[in-house]
Recover the amino acids of this structure.
């Protein structure tokens, strides 16, 4: 929603100012197809050359998420903390071995299945179940598990950064391809130097449209998408940090209610439930 609104504001204001100052929009419209073919064709070709197949697939998968709202809401975090609380209470009452079946088949787990939004996110569920499995095995201490968690979260961040960086690089390249299109237009104009001034003026105007489109596409269309992807990546990493904090607090001997409070404090203030909200939710689960 915000992406569409932002694009509408940018394009209406830019072209509106041009028209208000007496500009003929048809000059841009007539030059648009060929200029876009040169600019976008060159940029997309270079984009394919400069990125591995896995990066191209990651970009393809990430683009639809840009037009959706953030899934990382207060309600999601309440569910996440509630689910972790229930698992930790079960461990505290019945021992670590009691969650072995929950770990091996999360979709059949009486605890996990109550939280559908979390249970259907396989990245989050894999992270939780993998470290619960390590805790059950008892082969690593809290410091070793924390180090392993940090490495995995960093790997997740680097993988998520790949499509954002690729789109940002594409945005950086577009002004240069706009100049390429403009230079080609000037070359074409020089080849028609014997034409009347009105014709030459139109050809020069069309050439300059290339420079304009390259800059507009870069800073008004593509670059904002790279920035938005970075913000979404930070949100997803924050969820993993919350899980890490809760599980480590539990390993260090804190009660489940205290452990989830530690996790709550990690969250961004805009999505973080209050102490009272979390406590009331936990009391309901007790």
């Amino acid at each position: 929603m915000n992406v569409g609104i932002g694009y509408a504001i940018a394009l209406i204001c830019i072209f509106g100012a041009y028209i208000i100052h007496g500009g003929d929009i048809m000059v841009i419209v007539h030059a648009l197809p060929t200029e876009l073919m040169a600019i976008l064709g060159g940029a997309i070709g270079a984009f394919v050359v400069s990125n591995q197949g896995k990066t191209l697939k990651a970009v393809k998968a990430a683009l639809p998420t840009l037009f959706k709202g953030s899934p990382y809401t207060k309600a999601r975090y309440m569910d996440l903390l509630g689910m972790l609380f229930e698992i930790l209470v079960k461990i505290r009452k019945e021992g670590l071995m009691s969650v072995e079946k929950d770990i091996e088949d999360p979709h059949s787990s009486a605890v996990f299945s109550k939280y559908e939004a979390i249970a259907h996110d396989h990245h989050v569920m894999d992270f939780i179940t993998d470290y619960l499995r390590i805790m059950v095995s008892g082969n690593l201490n809290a410091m070793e598990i924390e180090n392993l968690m940090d490495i995995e979260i960093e790997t997740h961040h680097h993988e998520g950064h790949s499509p954002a960086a690729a789109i940002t690089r594409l945005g950086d390249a577009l002004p240069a391809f706009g100049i390429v299109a403009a230079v080609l237009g000037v070359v074409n104009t020089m080849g028609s130097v014997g034409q009347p001034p009105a014709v030459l003026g139109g050809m020069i105007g069309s050439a300059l449209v290339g420079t304009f489109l390259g800059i507009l596409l870069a800073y008004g269309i593509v670059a904002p998408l790279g920035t938005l992807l970075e913000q979404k990546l930070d949100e997803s990493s924050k969820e993993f940090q919350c899980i890490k904090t809760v599980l480590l607090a539990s390993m260090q001997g804190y009660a489940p209610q205290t452990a989830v409070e530690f996790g709550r404090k990690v969250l961004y203030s805009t999505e973080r439930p209050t102490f009272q909200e979390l406590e009331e939710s936990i009391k309901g689960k007790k």
About this structure: DSSP finds eleven helices and no strands in the chain. Residues 28-286 form one domain. The chain has a mean pLDDT of 87.
